[in-house]
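User: Please fill in residues for this 308-position structure.
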């Protein structure tokens, strides 16, 4: 059982003084994940906001073994490290037990790095990949990614007379990774820290690859107040926009179920990237999003044996 009092005693493997934006969710996610790691850990981070803001030469915010990777190859790099580790253990040249964790944003995970991630999952390397999903390529100018929600305004899905934001629904990467038949896959939120911490511990204990997709607020890209990120992340869960669940050996389990789902408009309203949805010209778009969220939630209930 994860206790907050115990976590506060940890020094933390990501130091302060990094240059991530105020209100960024990535550092919170990293802190929470690494606080429950008990073994020495090797970290690989794909190029993105987290990497460029924590490793500005000649400084580093990481108190761990750290490998900077290109946008696309965090999973394949860590696969090689994990393979070398197993070889050294087999030869008796290394006795300590190590954990291996890769972090990547949605650009480096859903899109550019998907081939490497899929390969690592399929080959069965014992590593944990954590995606901090902020829904766009925030580091390079807020371009849309395949994680960007339908209707969101980005620099490459701009709102105008032709299109009202992104025209495609986000890729359901958590389920795609589960289709690789890996032992453990989960979806988490930094607001629900105990649920996330428990999932990280479970992921590190399985004998094989694991993946956790975590919603990560980006004040710049979402156009939200810097001090409202955790509240908005909470609302994402309460509206079922970002449901919390895990998939263990193919079995779905919902780990948090709102007593009464809040309307999706409560998640959309605080975010400037969705403000155009409330213009008269876009009447009906909010309801379309609500219907899509409802369908996704009902599918999840069915997969977890809780269909109503």
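Assistant: Residues filled in for all 308 positions:
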């Amino acid at each position: 059982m994860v206790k907050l009092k115990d976590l506060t005693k940890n020094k933390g493997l990501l130091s302060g003084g990094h240059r991530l934006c105020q209100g960024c969710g990535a550092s919170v996610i990293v802190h929470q994940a690494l606080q429950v790691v008990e073994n020495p850990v090797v970290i690989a981070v794909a190029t993105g906001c987290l990497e460029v803001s924590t490793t500005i030469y000649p400084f580093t915010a990481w108190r761990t073994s750290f490998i900077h990777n290109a946008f696309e190859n965090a999973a394949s790099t860590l696969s090689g490290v994990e393979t070398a580790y197993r070889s050294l253990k087999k030869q008796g040249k290394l006795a300590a037990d190590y954990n291996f964790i890769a972090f990547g944003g949605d650009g480096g995970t859903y899109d550019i790095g998907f081939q490497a991630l899929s390969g690592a999952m399929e080959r069965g390397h014992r590593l944990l990949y954590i995606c901090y999903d902020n829904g766009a390529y925030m580091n390079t100018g807020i371009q849309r990614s395949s994680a960007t929600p339908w209707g969101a305004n980005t620099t490459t899905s701009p709102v105008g007379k032709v299109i009202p934001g992104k025209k495609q629904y986000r890729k359901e990467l958590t389920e795609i990774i589960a289709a690789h038949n890996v032992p453990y896959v989960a979806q988490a939120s930094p607001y629900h820290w105990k649920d996330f911490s428990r999932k990280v511990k479970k992921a590190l204990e399985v004998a094989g690859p694991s993946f956790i997709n975590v919603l990560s607020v980006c004040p710049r890209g979402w156009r939200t107040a810097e001090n409202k990120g955790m509240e908005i992340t909470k609302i994402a869960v309460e509206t079922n926009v970002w449901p919390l669940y895990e998939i263990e050996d193919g079995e779905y389990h919902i780990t948090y179920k709102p007593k009464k789902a809040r309307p999706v408009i409560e998640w959309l309203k605080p975010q400037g990237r969705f403000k155009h949805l409330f213009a008269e010209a876009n009447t009906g778009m909010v309801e379309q999003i609500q219907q899509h969220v409802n369908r996704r939630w009902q599918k999840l209930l069915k997969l977890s044996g809780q269909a109503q």
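For context: The chain has a mean pLDDT of 95.
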